[in-house]
Amino acid sequence: MKRSFIREILEAIDEKTISFAGGLPNEKLFPMEELKIATLKVIENPKTYQYTISNGIDELREQIALRYTKEGFATTKENILITTGSQQAMYILAKFFENKNITIEEPSYLGAMNIFRLNGLKMEGVKLENDGVDINKFEESFKNTKLTYLIPDFQNPSATTYSDTKREEVANIIKKYDGILIEDSPYSELFFDKKMPYISKSLTNNSFLLGSFSKTLVPSLRIGWIRANEDKIKSLMIIKESIDLHSCGLSQYILSEYLKDEQKYENHLQKIRDDYKEKAEFFSKSLKSIIPEFIHQTPKGGMFLYGGFKNKIDTFALVQECLKKKVVYVPGNQFYIDKVPNSEIRFNYTHSSFEQIEKGLKIIKSCL
Ligand code: PMP
User: Fold this and answer.
1) What class is the 5-23+265-367 domain?
2) Does 47-260 carry CATH code 3.40.50.300?
3) Which residues belong to any copy of the Aminotransferase class I/classII large domain (predicted)?
4) Dist. CA 87 → ligand 1 center (Å)
């Protein structure tokens, strides 16, 4: 086991560093006033501070379930398990599937790969193409593992979004081999044009769908969830109980109070989408003019821009140079199982200002 490069980097950087590294939402968009009002309401009530049930408070599970149902994905509170961030959701699932083989995308989310390693899961990587996994390779791997972890919307790190065709093909393969999908969807709401359907929607009993308020509201409350069939939720609760009894009650009550006004949350989501879209387009345009040798697609949602240099450049070595000049990004090799240095980079574009984006990219160019 090694620590996550990103967590280490977050500790190493100071206020003067321009960071394109962490997946930090833009705190200027946090709904501060509304969260304050919600907090003031719930902190008057003693039940806010009491132990609560392991699967999460009823109100919050109902609110999450209702959002799925409104999208045509019938869900009740019995299908929801509240977790301490979706990071814990992954940990619970990794414990549930301990020591199994698992098919993952490559590149994939670093935090998930570390959890899988910690729980003895053996990962098989399948290359991500522009519209989702290489489907033939996926089937080849999945027919043996019968378990897969995918991030189909605005993937971390690659920003890839699965096409309708790939979603259908993946679902068909999962059904064909009667296997299991872990669908991680923290960025699904951060679309710039349209929302894509969850793959889980066509897999009634064979999926675990993960969600989170970290990217849509605030990460520090640490509230995420798992959506699955009721029996599976009951099994996962045994693991959840043994980890922390229940996720923070205060956080759950604040979120539930905030979510009572559905329109307010919708307006907030739209504000983030508009802001991130503008940032993504600016970042992409700046990259094209400042570092034209870096090939990438303009993101269509989420928080990341991913790409690579035409020529062979060790981006892990390059970031050490950039760090000396107080700019940081995540080198692409961190998102691969074997971590062999490559020419790829993940940039987070949501947290920096327009000025910082231009300045940071110019510094990277000077380090090249
Ligand atoms: N899954 C993915 C793909 C992520 O990018 C992240 C956060 N970087 C998480 C899960 C964990 O998010 P949280 O625990 O804050 O919900």
Assistant:
1) alpha beta
2) no
3) 29-362
4) 6
